[in-house]
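Q: How do we represent a protein-ligand complex in a form that can be generated token by token?
A: Start from the inputs.
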Amino acid sequence: MMNRPDAPATKRNRDPILKALKKELHGAKELLEIGSGTGQHAVYFAKHMPMIVWQTSDQKKNHDAIQSWIKSTNSANLKLPLNLEIGLNEDCIKKKYDDVFSSNTSHIMSFKNVEKMFSLVGRILRKNGKFFLYGPFRVNGDFTSKSNEKFNDELNQKDPIMGIRDIEKLDKFAIQNNLSNYAFLQMPANNFLSVWSKI
Ligand SMILES: C[S@@+](CC[C@H](N)C(=O)[O-])C[C@H]1O[C@@H](n2cnc3c(N)ncnc32)[C@H](O)[C@@H]1O
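Then emit the structure tokens for the protein with S-adenosylmethionine bound:
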């Protein structure tokens, strides 16, 4: 059997995320995932929501992992990764999507690229389409747990461009791109699923 890369956190957070996504995603839809990572979320969500065409994407370096996870399933609604690196080539996405999902990306890409991600999402989402962004966020100017604060220090030490973002600043990017605040859901382990809706 092929040794596929494993991101253990996806197994811990996938069911609470799936439950929230299922409440909002009805009918046949096309969804773009930004920063699919190993592809494990995509495989799981596509299997449990067969009506959604799930388009994976990430930087080229992650494509082998995503492809190997996709090949391990037979979900016809799961699409091979697009080469999408925000800040480098987001203009390549020309088509519109019903929804966009991204997990644990806003604290990894630079703040400037987070802004560009919102601009991309605002451009490609169809009216009333949702942008689901999962991860840790600062709320009211503060970390929501000591562990998130420590995680933020570790990120900063690894690379100063990384860091947990203030949800209020992301809301500003959303407003600038015709995305209105729709829901901010508390998830396990001090994470959130923030949802914006295209006006
Ligand atoms: C912490 S991983 C999260 C992966 C996966 N979404 C998950 O939750 O397990 C961050 C992901 O963001 C991607 N990423 C970082 N910078 C990016 C950028 N500028 N454009 C697109 N993806 C980016 C990385 O390649 C990586 O797959």
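The chain has six helices and seven strands. Helices lie at 8-24, 40-48, 63-71, 111-124, 146-158, 167-176.
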